[in-house]
Amino acid sequence: MLSKRSLVGVRLNFHTLAVLFFLLIGTQAFAADPSVDNSDEAVAAGKALFNTNCKTCHRLDQKLVGPALRGATDRAPVELVKSFIKNSQAVIASGNAYYSDLYKEYNNTMMISHEFLSDEDLNNLLAYIEYGDTADPAAATATGDAEGGAVAAGGGIPNEYLTIILGVLVVVLLLILIVLGLIISVLTKYLAKQDLDEDDKEFVSQKTNLGKVFKSDMFVVIVTALVVALVAKTALDGLYSVGVQQGYAPEQPIAYSHALHAGTLEIECQYCHTGVELGKSANIPSANICMNCHTHVQNVQGAEGVSPEIQKIYDAVDNNQPIEWVRVHNLPDLAYFNHSQHVVVGEVECQTCHGPIQEMEVVGQHSALTMGWCIDCHRQTEITTEGNAYYDKLVQIHSDSKDALKVKDIGGLECAKCHY
Amino acid sequence: MKIAKTLSILGIAVAGITLAGCRAGGENQGLEYAPQMYHSVAYEPLTQIMDSETKGDLISTREDGKGEYFNSNINNPHNMNMREPVANTVPRNKQGYLPYRYKAFEIEEAGTSMKNPIELSDEVLTEGKRLYQLYCTPCHGTGGQGDGKVGAIIGGVANLTGGAYVGLSEGHIYHVITKGKGRMGAHGSQITPENRWKIVHYVKQELQGGQNADNATATTEVVAEADQDVSQVETPAN
Predict the structure, then answer these.
(1) pTM for the full model?
(2) Which CATH superfamily includes the segment(s) B107-228?
(3) Does B98 touch chain A (CB under 8 A)?
(4) Which of A162, A413, B138, B189 counts the most CB atoms within 10 A of its CB?
(5) Residue ranges per domain, chain A?
(6) Which of residues 205-224 of B touch A (CB under 8 A)?
């Protein structure tokens, strides 16, 4: 009874939705000025023009930076629309009420002028704007999403399955153990009832005597040795880790994520860490660099309102208050390290020293940053001399040697290069 | 006897575990061996200890009663060690670039009067391309078509290869990078003047096919017209 009723309910809902949909499209699509060309060629030519010149700001049925364009020729006379597209500021300056209001509505966002468009171009554009891509855009995005989902799901065995498989394996192993134990006990019982000679009897009864093994000297010695070795190892490891901050990953005042910015959005490291190629310090970006994007991006995934984390950037900018990022990598004052020397001259990737930053939600110290770590790399790494006239003479002198020219050969192991 | 043995083993175990706790990880910065040698006494630009309360160990020699490692500059706003340059001073550099004088709205004057001081060469173009990839691709995309990953989210990014933009003068592009325009923020603080001119070369020659590279006036007038009322309203005497 119940299931039947709910089924009917679903169907009814679907109908109302579908009807609503057609109503909406109906009101939107058929309000073009009759003088606009609706031939396929014009629409196709207009589409190409639209994609190169207008797509970053406009969609046909959706508000973006500028308004949804379909119906533009209904809202204003065709000739005026054309001159607006060519030079919007001139039309607004001429005092046209509709466009002046629109300009205000869009927070005085200037539409760039398109003087280079010929009259034919404009006609084609309008044809596309009014008659192009009439397929319902919501459906298009829906199929897009579905494809995205399918791709995501196709990527290897999901983690949960692995855990389930592991669990099953463990259960099976336990079952086998129990069965084996049962077999042994059955067998011993059976053998005990049999008539056996002395040797065999001893063998059967000896096996069950585990307690003796635990008490034997050998066992105690082995276990003590193991425990001592383990404790000694943790103690030594502990001692060696004094003064090494590998793994330190403090929480930051803003939940800024490298995985999102440097990973997903593929923003290059140098965009924010502007000093790496210029000098010693890589620099932490000041808030104005965040604001290049976050004046517009106020929340993730286009959600409404301002994300509380991004609000912190706005507060910092409004109050001229520095953001107190917690420093992660920090060499002691007694050592000198220079970024441009390694990144520009040495051509070492950031990831070699800092690890997979582009996958980190919170930055942690990946390398040990001990003196041994620096020296190891200087012993092993060849220097790039190609196209660097500074090294020409050195290469010449070194050409007698069998080994490649390493950092150690140019003084990378000398105390005073790092300590002064 | 047995109790003593267990106790000693337990003791070793506890010592081991405590030492293991010195290891850094998460919020724990780990134990330091000789902190007096590690923390700078002088003011450092990118590292400063703001904690003025925590007293040091036995041998602190501070006379101002602050925490042992406190090295923030109390004379600066927010106790910051970094400061902006003194007002009205002029930074000088080897290339002889002077500070950029045009105001953000003086885009028209900048566009017509500035010339690219860097000579065009293959090297400059390769370097310009690399720099463009670093600083512009997030929004303008690799090909300059306004289809970068961030650009798709921000919206309204100019298609540098589109008809409205190919005629821009080099000075105009330089001004836009330095001061920003409309929805694009100012990138002057991130890119040195020299590198900005290299990017301009790349944008002009490779993305825009060299159109109007020598800054013909015909098309700049068009651009000027679009911005006319803004500059008329706001341009002060200077």
Answers:
(1) 0.82
(2) Cytochrome c-like domain (1.10.760.10)
(3) no
(4) B138
(5) 2-139, 159-228, 258-417
(6) 222-223
